[in-house]
Amino acid sequence: xxxxxxxxxxxxxxxxxxxxxxxxxxxxxxxPDEALAWAEALKAADPEAAxxxxxxxxxxxxxxxxxxxxxxxxxxxDTLTSTPALAPWARLRLxxxxxxxxxxxxxxxxxxxxxxxxxxxxxxxxxxALLERVxxxxxxxxxxxxxxxxPKERDARRRFALADxxxxxxxxxxxxxxxxxxxxxxxxxxxxxxxxxxxxxxxQIPPGSIDSAAELEEQILLGYAFFHHREFERAIRYxxxxxxxxxxxxxxxxxxxxxxxxxxxxxxxxxxxxRFEPAAAAFGALAGSTSDTTQRxxxxxxxxxxxxxxxxxxxxxxxxxxxxxxAVQPTGRWSSASLIATLRLxxxxxxxxxxxxxxxxxxxxxxxxxxxxxxxxxxxxxLAQGRADRxxxxxxxxxxxxxxxxxxIEYWRARSAEVVGDVETAITRYVGVLRADPYHPYAVDAAAxxxxxxxxxxxxxxxxxxxxxxDRFDQVEAAWLLLGADDPLGRRALARLRLSLxxxxxxxxxxxxxxxxxxxxxxxxxSLARPEEKLLAxxxxxxxxxxxxxxxxxxTPPLAFTxxxxxxxxxxxxxxxxxxxxxxKRVPSRVPYDALPVDYRRLLYPFRYSYWVLRESSKREIDxxxxxxxxxxxxxxxxxxxxxxxARGLAQFxxxxxxxxxxxxxxxxxxxxxxHDPETAIALGAGYLGLLAVEHEGRIxxxxxxxxxGEPQARLWRNYCFSDEMPEYLAKIAFRETRGYVAKVLxxxxxxxxxxxxxxxxxxxxxLP
Length: 769
Prior knowledge:
This protein is mainly α. It is built from 42 helices and no strands. Helix 8 (104-116) runs antiparallel to helix 9 (121-136) and helix 39 (700-709) crosses helix 40 (711-719).
């Protein structure tokens, strides 16, 4: 550095309350070149202060952004000695970089040192998972010896054990390898480690090799592991080999209850593989083999489910099977589900009197939820066919049970009023649906009806235009909801709402959200004792994310908005979304969502990886906003997401489905870890939606239902319907979880279309790292 440059830096330092402020300002302005120049100037001017602040680490991150990997490694290496508080992060990054470069042996040495030194809690999970991966990929097994006394949480302990098993195999100790892997399965058959252990054991323990009670138990463990991870073909091979030995001496140690559960898992495997006829036969045989009424009802219910999914030609058999389930245990767990399924099949088969008799049974049982859903099913069926003489009565009865949302009742009562020509009542009720949430699928349909070229639409437009000039807030809001953003008067109504709401001290901060300038962040007034706080003060929001709400609290909305925005820019989308949603709880209920700033709404509905979403959606000819909404609801845009059902990555695929979709779209999968790769996950998600679009003729509600519950179930719900309308389909979805899932995905899809569908929408034009 020249004397003049040094003088300039010293003068800037003297005039700056905290030298990191300008560094972060450059980062916030997304100018990594300028941020790097400032960091290097600070280091040259005062190396001791730079070390205390952690500038070597931020230099490493900036150099990575600028694609200078050699210089980045050097900066991280400097951090190890210059800033001990940030050394764990630097060591983790060095190890990750070596893994990315296919140098597992180097990565293993680096990460083992970090684990041995007991990293901060924020890094422990990443560090242990990385150590397991690189040891398995070829790292030095001797490193594990140095970690024997390191305190281990359950996940860490299981990951170390898996690495031990791999090392035992390399060292020519197959018996030890086998014992470790079996111990892992005995501890848990459902987590990610269990699947890896089971797959590794298949070579040593093939299905059918049973000569002792111990070998029988091994086969059972493997069968359940594959069953829980939805590897049903493998589960069938292992469970089937066990079941044929149960009558023999080898299987004598298996209790009657255990034998039932094994046979049940085998039949469920056939069910999940969509082999419904064999599944029905297996469940029928299972029901006949037990005298326990609970077990029998459970098996009979699954037999009925298999029959109804086998096709409409088996519905009569399914009805009888559901009735038998109820008869076996009228007050048991499966009784209400059997009754409501019977009602649906009878009604759709045209046997109305029989269905109404079942409804009377449900009413007599005083099961509010099942009765309310049945009444809605009947009302939606009639209204979809243009019949209203019974529907409104059923809806009023359903409302009394208080088990349906007001939106459900309001929407279908609006439909009822529309069918009988009571336009004014229909409009009022549709506005109520829109007021609850204008992006919900019922509301989207209501808006389309209100704005259509029809008698209803004409009256709605006249009412909306008459209300725009009102002095009453609720009437101006109604004008906005009736007319929408495509009508100039609708936009005027929204502008009036915003103006009116600015007078509300609770609403105004949410309507005027702007990022807080870096120099005004309270962060600079704190002690910043935690390492994550030091990272935050370097503008590294992904690494310092755990401290965002501490320094950017929702009690001060502009600060929380700023924190959420910087998290999003750093790629910490899941945490950014969480902060934005916590902040949303401060929005007064009377504030229309569309009155909020667009930049804040985009934090609530982030479009990360948009390049790949748009590319893959175009390739598969699907709606990109449906895929974006699906990813938001499936994983919150977290590439490392792993569910209790063993679904992985952004698009939440289980391994067998991923293989099937990959084969169908000619995509190469590079092992289970590739499901956590964003580009691969998005390609699979788009590919699966493309297949579902063909299967369901592009009806997005069925595609979302099929994605969540499987294609056969989605087809069954379509067969319940009398029309192709989305609202009827939504009312006919029998699973509460799937009904909620479809509503959330379609709601998100509507938000994405509104936020990013216009030509001026901000969308990435290049892939993100």
